[in-house]
Amino acid sequence: MLILSIxxxxxxxxxxxxxxxxxxxxYDLYTDRSSSAMLTTLIKTSIEHAGYALSDIDAIxxxxxxxxxxxxxxxVSTAKGLCYAxxxxxxxxxxxxAMSLQINPFFNGHLLCPMIDARRMEVYAAVFxxxxxxxWPTQAIIMKEDSFTDLLKDNKIVFFGDGAAKCKPLxxxxxxxxxxxxxxxxxxxxxxxxAVNAFRNNQFENVSSFEPYYLKDFMSPxxxxxxxxT
Length: 230
Hints:
Layout: E1 2-7, E2 13-19, E3 22-29, H1 34-50, E4 59-65, H2 69-86, E5 90-94, H3 95-103, E6 111-117, E7 122-128, E8 134-142, H4 149-154, E9 157-160, H5 164-171, E10 177-178, H6 188-200
Parallel strand pairs: 1-4, 4-5, 6-9, 9-10
Antiparallel strand pairs: 1-2, 2-3, 6-7, 7-8
Helix pairs in contact: 1-2, 3-6
C-alpha cells in the first residue's frame, strides 16, 4: 500500500508518504498560514522524494481534528479534492490520537494527554494509555485546578501540545503531572502510521459527506465598531 497523509490541524502543515513497511518521506512546516500557501508544494515534494507519482497513491489520509477551524478546512478540502481527482479512498485520523503516538514509546506506564489550544482557558484534549487506547474521549475542556484530579490521584499523566501551557500553571505542582520540555506538534508522520492500520481494516470515509471534526461550532469574532462622523 502507498498512503499520502496530511495534517493541517494547527498552524503550519505536515505531509508524509507511508507504505506498510514504514515512512518513505515526511515534511513538517510550522509557519503561520503555510497550510494554504505551501500544502500543495509539500505534497508534490513528498511524493517525488518517495520515488512515486500521485497516481501511485492507494489512499489519502487526513488528520480530521480537532484543531484550527481554518486549518482543518484547508486540509480536508485538499484531501477530498485529491480523492475525487485520483479516485482514491479517504482515511480520517483523530489529531490527538496521532499526537499521542508521537511520544508513546518514551513514557511507558504513563497516561498521555495531548492538548490543542482553543479559546481563552479552553483546550481540545483526550487521554490515552500506554497502548495508545482512549481513556478519556476527545472533548473540549475549560481548564480548572480540579480538571484532572481523579486521574492524577493514581496515574502519572504527560500533558503536551500547544494547549498544555494553559494546564501547566494549574497542575505543575502535582507530583503526577509531567510536562515535557520539548514542544509536541501534530504531524502527518504519525497520522500515516495510524492510517496504515486503518487501510488494512478498510476503515474509509464517505468522501462526499465527510466533514472535519471541529468538535464545536466556529465562533467568529464580533465585528469592530466603526466610528461614524457626521
